[in-house]
């Protein structure tokens, strides 16, 4: 028996003697019995403390897991919020571009002798024109053969693109006049006139990409999409004068400072290409 345990045993015996619980001298067997009981109690307390320590470790692990879940959820909500915020910004920019286009169209109509109050509501709710002269001044002809409009989005992510490569928007939403080819990504004008085109490109998270609207192989306007922390949409619009047979498409810009490595575009309908005939000049 070690000196510490012996001391503890003597202390217990002394306490029992002091309280009058024992009236005779404690024998060696009694001493051993007390010490054994005390050792058992100490061992039991040790087991309890070990169990408590294990529970403490498990609780800390659970707390760490919950804390990480909270951080992850917060990050996901922040990403979604940033995407919605950028969508709102893009929508505002498109609205501003549309207002500019309306102003340009009004100027175009004035220069060509067209009157805004004589344009028929093509939905059929407007007042019907009663003279052939008024029909000639309509912005959109009443015949369906002159209606041209298309809209296509990117369903699948496009990977490993190269500079000057055409972007093929594979999901056709609208294709009145069949001018857009989803296999090549090229719109071919079948009717000469004034056309409006717009493109929206979403980059992958923390990446950037530059594209451009091209007419007959000639760069017209550029689009930048990118963000250092999340996804980002870039948009661009343009009004073009086309003749029958002219081609318009979207391609990767030749800028190695931005478009390098695995050049890719985010799909899932976050990227799109649209256009329509504003006025037939035939």
From TrEMBL:
Signal peptide: none annotated. It comes from the Eukaryota. The keyword Protein transport does not apply. Keywords: Coiled coil, Secreted, Signal. SMART domains: C1Q. Its main location: secreted. SUPFAM superfamilies: TNF-like. One of its GO terms (cellular component) is extracellular region. Residues 35-101 form a coiled coil. Residues 143-282 form the C1q domain. Pfam families: C1q. This is C1QL.
